[in-house]
Design goal:
The complex is a heterotrimer of chains A (336), B (119) and C (218). Chain A is an alpha/beta fold and 336 residues long. Chain A folds into two domains: 5-177, Stage V sporulation protein AD (Peroxisomal Thiolase, Chain A, domain 1, 3-Layer(aba) Sandwich); 186-335, Stage V sporulation protein AD (Peroxisomal Thiolase, Chain A, domain 1, 3-Layer(aba) Sandwich), CATH 3.40.47.40. Chain A has ten helices and 15 strands. In chain A, the strands form two sheets. In chain A, strands 1, 2, 3, 4, 5, 6, 7, 9, 10, 11, 12, 14 and 15 form a 13-stranded mixed sheet that branches. A two-stranded parallel sheet of chain A has the order 8-13. In chain A, α6 (204-223) crosses α7 (239-252). Chain B is an all-alpha fold and 119 residues long. Chain B has six helices and no strands. Chain B has helices spanning 2-24, 31-47, 51-58, 60-63, 66-84, 86-114. The longest helix of chain B is centred in the C-terminal third of the chain and has 29 residues, at 86-114. Chain C is an all-alpha fold and 218 residues long. Helix content of chain C is 84%, strand content 0%. Chain C has helices spanning 2-18, 27-50, 53-85, 94-121, 126-147, 150-157, 159-162, 165-178, 184-191, 193-217. The chains are: A alpha/beta (336), B mainly alpha (119), C mainly alpha (218). Chains in contact: A-B, A-C, B-C. At the B-C interface, α1, α2, α4, α5 and α6 of B face α4, α5, α7, α8 and α10 of C.
């Protein structure tokens, strides 16, 4: 009997693991956005000082964000039992090389832009299961590494459609402990892949929205809760277009949508000309920093449902005519 | 002066057609599709003798778009076929466009060598 | 065994009737139908694995039928969804885009005409002046790519900066430049032809066809 599982897809944590520390580093574009005050560090260029390539820059972003998070609670990488991390690049190279530097037991994750939520789920499961005392979770993305892998070379003069999203340059890291106060993870809902035939790599919000909708509704049904039991339901990176689709889907099933928002919509100003908003693993990873700050220091929210959304896009399958599968994992964060 | 204006008008129209193709069709058309499409269509129009009229009227307005590249390929192949038969048909197109292709290779390589991608 | 397959075939037919009403079905009914399909699928697959030769071929075609049906059910959700969300996607400003493409594309072609006139007036033959113009424009497109200007131009000019030969040069130079960090052989050397490759391949093939046809009908 799975006694910690509620309903179909939701996990209930007995010990409620605490997020005790977090840190974020972002690129120059995000540093001009409305959330700039909340990031620990802003790069002045899309290349980190002393680095020769964007991939190496992204790796440093992830590593440094984890190190900053560790330093805030005065522990070292070796104090973590396990490290969960992932990114968008082929073979999740950013996470692999970060884990090489940190030199701690490592579980690599790929959930596209849902990676951070996936990591928080996995970390909480390890902690609640009694397999670990402290774990680290990271996710990152870099605009230029993602563009050239998934779409076009960045210098190519192509026109981005209005549904396109801007991959966030940034990394966010989190330290989870088995016991602690402040912000705790009470539940997690593991999502199913939803693919409703969207195949446009420049309209990923629409590809992900059905997955987000399914995870949110399943979560509410599993726990017998209503949308208004949460101060905020925030998705990872649906962008303006995807958020509109999600609201339409939720609305048509009779759910209120006034407390539903999206990290990809929050991270940029409209005049930054990013079209539909932010995307990438780094998007929700750095915006969650802001949300946790708001919860802990400003007591703005007491309970939020954070839903990481991922468009599992591969250029290979896209060229073969496949559509883009979407996935969404959610965690319930409470301030106690 | 009139030549310049004609080049502007014809070139503009040819490019605007490409934009309409990108915006109005449901397909996800990339620069690669546009470039290949224009070369192919240009070559075919040239083979049936239509592209010549465009060049006569608009000059560079018809030769600068990639369809002009297709025109050069087609005319090169036809001229080759006239002169050398099958061998000419095989090599004529590339011969006529060799300067453009070589320039793209060399300048592409030079740019890659001396610049850094800015992102 | 034969009876079993007949029963499965019957179930496939029955399910096919449900497909039309799929969009309005309750989630629980949907799950039940999907599980039925999975059950048939798995049992047929096991049989397929246990036999060889002609027999396997027969069972394979049955499995194929189930798989195709599963796919149809999956797509049924997608079609309804696509219809619903189409109106939520922002539409491009077609008039503005077309005017910008016209202006920028026209300007590049006019520049080409100026360059051509210069070459032609300096005594080059018509053919050579054309080739020299193409080379000069390719240089310009590649150089602006290196400076990081061409992608900014492309952002608002769209096809206006893709269609002219400078756009071709931009595609060549951008791929080469971007993959510099992967080395000069597999990075720059190979990537130079990411976009140039298809253009040259299909251009050449079409021109050869044209040349051959001309040769044959002459």
């Amino acid at each position: 009997m799975a006694d910690k599982k509620v309903g179909k897809q939701t996990l209930q944590f007995a010990c409620a693991p605490a997020i005790t520390s977090w840190a974020s580093i972002v690129g120059p574009m995000e540093g001009q956005g409305p959330l700039k005050e909340y990031f620990d560090m802003v790069l002045e260029d899309n290349l980190a000082p002393g680095e020769q390539s964007w991939e190496k820059t992204e790796q440093k972003l992830m590593q440094h964000s984890m190190e900053l998070a560790l330093e805030k609670v005065k522990i070292l990488p070796g104090d973590l039992d396990f490290y969960f991390a992932g990114d968008l690049l082929n073979q999740i190279i950013t996470a692999n090389f970060t884990a090489r530097f940190l030199s701690i037991p490592f579980i690599g994750l790929y959930g596209a832009c849902s990676t951070l939520a996936e990591g928080l789920c996995m970390g909480s499961i390890f902690l609640d299961g009694g397999f670990a005392e402290k774990v680290g979770v990271s996710a990152s993305s870099h605009h230029d590494t993602a563009e050239r892998q998934l779409r076009f070379p960045t210098e190519q003069g192509s026109q981005r459609p209005l549904t396109a999203q801007w991959t966030v340059t940034g990394a966010g890291s989190y330290v989870l402990q088995k016991t602690g106060t402040g912000i705790v993870i009470t539940h997690a809902t593991i999502g199913k892949i939803q693919d409703l035939g969207e195949s446009n790599a420049n309209n990923m919000g629409t590809a992900m929205a059905p997955a987000a909708c399914d995870t949110i509704i399943t979560h509410l049904q599993d726990l017998g809760r209503k949308i208004h039991d949460y101060d905020l339901i925030i998705t990872g990176d649906l962008g303006e277009v995807g958020l509109a689709v999600l609201k339409e889907l939720l609305g048509s099933k009779g759910y209120a949508t006034d407390r539903v928002s999206d990290c990809g919509v929050l991270i940029y100003e409209p005049q930054q000309d990013v079209h539909s908003g932010g995307s990438g693993c780094g998007c929700s990873a750095v915006v969650l920093n802001y949300l946790l700050d708001e919860m802990l220091y400003k007591k703005k929210y007491y309970r939020i449902f954070f839903v990481g959304t991922g468009a599992l896009l591969s250029p290979t399958s896209s060229f073969q005519g496949e559509s883009i599968p979407g996935i969404a994992h959610g965690v319930v964060l409470e301030y106690r | 002066m009139e030549g310049l204006l004609r080049a502007f008008l014809l070139g503009g129209v040819i490019c605007a057609v490409g934009q309409l193709l990108m915006d109005l069709t449901p397909f996800n058309i990339t620069p690669g599709h546009i470039l290949v499409g224009y070369v192919t269509v240009g070559a075919i129009l040239s083979a049936v003798g239509l592209y010549e009229y465009l060049i006569d009227w608009g000059g560079a307005g018809a030769t600068v778009p990639l369809s002009g590249f297709g025109h050069s390929l087609a005319q090169g192949a036809i001229a080759g076929a006239k002169k050398n038969g099958v061998l000419g048909a095989l090599g004529g197109g590339l011969e006529a466009t060799s300067v453009g292709i070589a320039a793209a290779v060399v300048f592409g390589l030079l740019v890659a060598t001396f610049f850094k991608p800015k992102g | 065994m034969f009876d079993e397959f007949a029963a499965i075939k019957k179930r496939i037919k029955q399910r096919e009737k449900v497909l039309k009403a799929w969009a309005d079905m309750k989630p629980n009914d949907k799950t039940r139908i999907q599980q039925d399909m999975q059950k048939d699928h798995q049992s047929v697959l096991l049989k397929e694995a246990q036999v060889t030769g002609d027999e396997r071929q027969q069972i394979f075609s049955l499995r194929r039928e189930i798989e195709e049906q599963e796919q149809r059910f999956q797509q049924a959700d997608g079609i309804a969804f696509q219809k619903r969300v189409k109106k939520l996607a922002p539409k491009p400003n077609i008039v503005k885009n077309t005017i910008l493409a016209f202006l920028v594309g026209g300007a590049i072609c006019m520049l080409g005409q100026i360059i051509y006139d210069l070459f032609a007036n300096s005594g080059l033959t018509e053919k050579n002046a054309s080739a020299a113009t193409a080379a000069a424009l390719v240089f310009g497109g590649a150089f602006l790519t290196g400076l990081g200007v061409y992608d900014v131009l492309g952002k608002f000019a769209g096809a206006g900066s893709i269609v002219p030969i400078t756009g071709f040069a931009n595609s060549v130079a951008a791929s080469a430049l971007e993959f510099k960090r992967e080395g000069f052989i597999y990075g720059v050397g190979a990537r130079l032809f990411t976009v140039a490759g298809p253009v040259i391949v299909y251009g050449t093939v079409v021109s050869i066809f044209i040349g051959l046809i001309y040769y044959l009908v002459r």
